[in-house]
Amino acid sequence: NSAIQGSRTVSKVPSSVIMLRFATSSSSRRNLMAAGATATVGGCVLIFNSQNRRPVTENAPVEKKAVSFPAPQPLPSRTEQIERLRAGKTFDVLVIGGGATGCGAVLDAQMRGLDAALIERGDFSSETSGRSTKLIWAGIRYIATAIAQLMRFRNIIRPFDAISDFRSEFKMVLGAHRERRLLLENNPHLTNWVPIAVPMKTWGIWPPPFGHPLFSVAPLTLPGVFKFYDSLSGFSCPPSHIMSKSRAARKFPQLDEDVKYVSVFYEGQHNDARTATCIALTAAEEGAAVGNYVEMIDIIRENGDSGKAVGIVARDHITGDDFEIRAKSIIFAGGPFTDGLRRIEDPKAAPAVNGAAGTHIVMPGYYAPDGIGLLDINTSDGRFLFFLPWQGSVIVGTTDRKGPPESTPGPPEDEIRWLLNETEKYLSNDIKVRRGDVLSAWQGFRPLASDPNAKPGAPISRDHIISTNPDTNITFITGGKWTTYREMAEDVIDRVIKLNNLGDKAGPCRTHERPLRGGVGYERNIPIQLVQDFGVSEETAEHLAKTYGANAFDVCRMAKPTQKRWPRFGNVLVEGYPYLECEIEWACKNEMVITVKDMLTLRTRLAFINSEAAKSVAPRVAEIMGNTLGWSKQEKKSQLAEAQQYLSEFGGPVPNTTCVRKLTTVTKNDIRDLFKTLDNDGNGYIDLVEMIQVSETLGIKMTRDEAKEIFDKMDHDKNGKVSEEDFIDWWNSVGPDNELRKSLDKKFQASAEKLGTGSESRGVMFG
């Protein structure tokens, strides 16, 4: 491999050397079963290394120079940023879209010496960039799909095209390895390595992964493939290894015992929304003008309705004011929503972006051991499924559904069910995977891009797309992956510098050496210092250090006494989670947060971790933000209503009522299905809390006293538990005129008069 930036230099490594290192490790006899695959795939390093995307000197310097950056200064407030945007200045670069790529682009431009600005219609990372699988991954799947495509029988008649396609995919993976390493090395306060276990239950797989017979022998070759994968980043990641069946049982007791062995490899992990927000705030530290909740509503062209674009008309969604922003170059970085921006530019613009939705669910932390995840490489529909520890919980995802992008985080219930079913496949039989254990669920859309301005016959890119409209001179960028956001930003800024003759002012790209906000001055012992200096809990100290980096000290200085023996400072926002109330005040004063919704979803990730907990604490967040930002009572009420509405779109332990459908059977089975719906956690009984939760979700209004009175009538044994038989007895005894029964009938679209009266009648259940 080409030289990789860092303390170790890696030159071209023959596959035989990689195999030797692999074979001489512990458990070498088991490891050698992968040697053939390593030899086959390893030669790709030699074949394609010299044709890498960037020259060696640009791709990754041999020695990492020590670069000093000034200590972070207080950032301008959002009000000050908006004043800069509307001051009438002509910026060199204006970026529309505050996801990872857009924020990366404005940071890149500003660090080159250009005057750069960015606007985002919501909060930073409020769409795709905040709803990923939380991995900084280099693309093990892309290697597999590239090999599968290369080995297709049809390529016999198109060998050169096939090799070109493979080389393109391989270059993309090499770039992802480089960017993964940079992101993790520059930002230890935001990132970490996570081991991922791939359990093998048989020595052969059929039907094979990726639909190609070659991969039917994956259990025999996977360890070698992972060693090759390690080599692509110069072995800078923790080493992949084999875990025996007995060791896997000790390390991962939740795993099904029926496995031959477990192969473990490593990927990067982060809090995606926090990383993207830090990119935007770092750009502000460098002097860029950035504004959230500012939307582009029109284009300003030099000749009225024609000519090059020289600016935009923007709307501040907080004040409702419209104003102009002038710029020499404009970049659209709207991810899957880029076509919406392009239609403002040209209502007849040909589509360039399709959306693909992915659903994730979050389960309690006990579903996986601390610090290790799981990957299913061959789900029932051929997708990869990750099962990862994250923020004290376990994230499971993702699905892949084509369709127009939507802003709502609400996922389809059938995809939640599919994820639960796939999760159950590898877990021990004594672990019940329950619908009620879903703490949160959401969907996000990734962009699938094509270039509408490409010349006829131009090759289709397998990576990100950068395209310029010759009529308006507006450039858009879309596609790509979270891991390569920095590379994408560099590429698009290179493009607009060349197009707009900004080379005399712009210096070279420097983002590869810039730690993100909180990284300057960060040390790994900061959590210990926070505990010792401020008396916060160890869990909170870890959270603050991994969220704010060196700025965690300033956050702790705002912490209030707890009036407890321990922890002495830092009142938690909600029990069971490390978020502090003082974080809200800090974010309002220092990080441009302006809505309760954003505080609960993006600045803390509570809604993404436990949607019910987020709902419960929303009033307290509104109170703290209102006091800090000077809101009126009406504004607090409006903010809370907006937050509660948005939070209701997240999945949770209770299925969404839009996923209700009719049953095809009758009698007691119908009532049993209804009981199972009310039995959130699947433990065989309903308790009072479950009954109240489901009633609220279904829109059945009752006070707690009313619910308690009904519950007591169901609870025959007076032990706080209503069994299935208790529920059936209650249903039959109260009769069709009972208000709760009528409400349930209405919600489930059933006939109360027919339910339970015969085999020809029909009931309903959750799908």
Question: Would you spell out the secondary-structure blueprint of this structure?
Answer:
Blueprint: H1 15-23, H2 28-31, H3 35-48, H4 56-59, H5 78-85, E1 90-96, H6 100-111, E2 116-120, E3 135-136, H7 140-150, H8 159-186, E4 191-200, H9 218-231, E5 241-243, H10 245-251, E6 261-270, H11 272-285, E7 289-292, E8 294-301, E9 309-316, E10 322-332, H12 338-345, E11 353-363, E12 373-376, E13 385-390, E14 393-397, E15 401-402, H13 413-424, E16 440-449, E17 465-468, E18 475-478, H14 485-499, H15 526-534, H16 538-548, H17 552-556, H18 581-590, H19 596-603, H20 606-609, H21 611-629, H22 633-647, E19 660-662, H23 668-678, E20 685-686, H24 688-697, H25 704-714, E21 722-723, H26 724-734, H27 739-747, E22 764-766
Parallel strand pairs: 1-2, 1-10, 2-7, 4-12, 10-18
Antiparallel strand pairs: 3-6, 4-6, 5-6, 8-9, 9-10, 11-14, 11-15, 11-16, 12-13, 13-14, 17-18, 19-22, 20-21
Helix pairs in contact: 1-3, 1-9, 3-9, 6-11, 6-14, 7-8, 15-16, 18-21, 19-21, 19-22, 21-22, 23-26
